[in-house]
Design brief:
The structure is a single chain. With 257 residues, this protein is mainly β. 5% of the residues lie in helices and 58% in strands. The chain has one helix and 25 strands. The strands form five sheets. Strands 1, 2, 3, 6, 7, 8, 9, 10, 11 and 25 form a ten-stranded antiparallel beta sheet that branches.
Length: 257
């Protein structure tokens, strides 16, 4: 047995009946680099980098209590993979890596109609897996300043990591037609949202889903969604209220190659 838990779309692939023997997910997604020639320099430069989809292959055996039992179970097993872009969760280290995956039809090897068979399933995934649970970068209560430059440490192995900032304003003075900014000092990527803010508002910058929500309602915004490289970084917050008191929670789901 492979030894780690694995499931797709909520269906476990490591049970008393399904004996997964290998999970091939260690190879990173291909890195596609576009290079352009520098004029009169006899040299090239990398202009764009993109990671292609990642392929994961899972193999194992399925053991029924009888030929009829396996017949019936295989119908359910094939249905596990009907839906596209679902969670493929694989136990890794002390946690779980979660991939957004779509499965090819499973390859079933069952000679002579026996009550056991082999299987192989190939998944086409988004290039990076992520943690199921978030890592807290900042959790601060009662903040009152108009700007903050917070030193944070970003984990994961993918080059860029995506944060989620949630701000709960217990009080705001003069919040009509005012702007809140969140960004990455190192890259200059910043988002600005302008709205009529009031005490009790909850503002969320969700870089993962590319959304800004005010009390759950999606907002128009300007700027670029801030991405953070792994390691030491600085996250910026700013507003132009006369005064504010807020709770400030910055998290990210670590992305892994």
């Amino acid at each position: 047995m492979a030894g780690q838990a694995v499931s797709f779309d909520g269906n476990s692939l490591q049970t008393a009946v399904i004996l997964t023997s290998s999970i091939e997910h260690e190879t990173p997604a291909d890195k596609n680099m576009r290079m352009f020639a520098l004029a009169n320099a006899n040299a090239n430069t990398v202009n764009r980098v993109n990671h292609n989809s990642k392929t994961i292959v899972i193999r194992g055996k399925i053991i029924g209590t009888s030929i009829t039992d396996l017949d019936n179970f295989l119908d359910d097993f094939r249905a596990y993979f009907n839906n596209e872009e679902r969670y493929l969760d694989i136990g890794y280290g002390s946690g779980t890596r979660r991939y957004i995956a779509s499965a090819q039809e499973p390859d079933i090897g069952r000679p002579n109609g026996l009550k056991h068979c082999s299987f192989s399933v190939t998944f086409i995934c988004q290039p990076f897996g992520r943690d199921i649970l978030p890592t807290t970068l900042i959790s601060a209560t009662g903040r009152t300043a108009s700007t903050y430059n917070d030193e944070i440490t970003i984990g994961g192995s993918a080059k860029f990591q995506l944060p989620i900032l949630t701000i709960s304003y217990s009080s705001i003075a003069d919040g009509t037609n005012k702007t809140v900014t969140f960004g990455n000092n190192a890259t200059g990527q910043q988002l600005q949202v302008t709205a009529d803010f009031a005490s009790g508002d909850v503002l969320a910058f969700n870089v993962v889903e590319r959304k800004i929500l005010l009390n759950g309602a999606e907002q128009n915004f300007s700027g670029a969604f801030p991405e953070f490289e792994r390691g030491a970084q600085t996250a910026y917050y700013g507003d132009d209220f006369t005064a504010r008191t807020m709770d400030y929670d910055l998290i990210h789901y670590r992305y892994w190659k």
